[in-house]
Amino acid sequence: GDLGIDAQAQAGTPAGFQVMFTRGINTFSQMIDYWHYMGFLVNQNTAPYGEQFPYIVEQERNHAAFVAAAVAVGDGSNVITGADQNFSNAWFLPTPIPAPAAAAMVAAPHPAHRRAGQAVAFASSRQRGRLEG
Question: What is the pLDDT of residue 56?
Fold first, then answer.
């Protein structure tokens, strides 16, 4: 968890505030593309009976990749005064910057360890188990 005031402000949550692990990831395709922004869930209770009384926190989440916001939720008929509105925390990924047009991109040469048309490059030169190709 985020223990410092600055880290909590960047995360958009105060200490002890329970949130969804997937906050900010709102579609399946976002989870596929941005899974590496997610943190690790770790049990901080390392006492002898810590597994029976876990203190689970999230560590190493990339808070800078998400935008923390507050959304007003209320009765649709009360748009004038807003007397019955509650605010709920929300997170989302910012809109990505579009990639340059394909015509403007120059094809990069294949790295030295890969041959043209080769989909996978192996890091070692071991030949055991490989078929002659």
Answer: 85
- N-to-C CA span, the chain: 51
> CB 93: neighbour CB atoms within 10 A?
16
Residue 67's identity, in one-letter code, is: V
CA 52 to chain centre: 29
Structure tokens at 81: 């005064």
Which pair of tokens denotes residue 98? Answer: 């579009």
Residue 108 pLDDT level (bands cut at 50, 70, 90): low
Helix (H, G, I), strand (E, B) or coil at 30: helix
Task: Tell me the pTM.
Answer: 0.55
> Structure tokens of 1?
């968890």
| Token pair belonging to 36 | 């590496």
Residue matched to tokens 């490989």: 130
Dist. CA 35–CA 49, nearest whole Å: 32
